[in-house]
Amino acid sequence: MKILNKEFISEVLSVHSYYKEETLLANFIEDWASKHDEIECLRDAKGNLCLKKGELSEGEAYPLVTAHLDTVQIRQVDYIRNNERLPIITEEKDGKTIFRCDGLGPGADDKCGVAIILSLFDKVDKLKACFFVEEEIGCIGSMNMEQDWISDIGYCISFDSPEVNRAAWQSYGVKLFDGKFYKEHLKPVCDKHGLTRFLSEPYTDIIAIRCLSEKACVVIGTGYYEEHTMTEYCVAEDM
Fold this sequence. Notes:
This protein is of the alpha/beta class. The protein has 7 helices and 13 strands. Strand 8 (167-171) and strand 9 (174-175) form a beta hairpin. Helix 1 crosses helix 4 (108-120). The mean pLDDT is 95.
């Protein structure tokens, strides 16, 4: 695994979160960012977190990556109230590493996206990220984000889709990129990494980015399965 550390995946998954109860996960990200001097971290009026690394040269634009902080796993609320970490179980099966949480979902939708994005900051010199609150109840965080934060982006990748060979060309009827962008930029990357399954996805934060910035966007599968259920799990290698 070139980017993701399995122990870090488990640590992120163990931080409890629920919609309108995202503070502890946001605090975790802020604490992580505070240990990286090169990363700027801001929390906007709605509670969304915005991270930035590096300064642009003339003619450049930032890649933007996004995930959401909330989950629908209501049984995590008890852990939130008691300020306890979730008991994440790690197991090896058929050559892959699986993360789950007995009796409740770990919130891999969308903590997988959070883990991937934070790990990307260790590999990319210039990057912006947004972590949104209240995605699961109508993309409220992204719809109320500070628009200035995305004024200098070139495109957006949202890590908020299940499985591995999966991407979105459309979300809730909103087309996320045009044919020229796909042919010149997206297809070569997808072909290289075996990403061949493009779908029309339901409502998600990417719509706000697309509508506010008019930049090309895509939603990528992040290796979680059986989302929104008590048997939810994720696979490190698929992430």
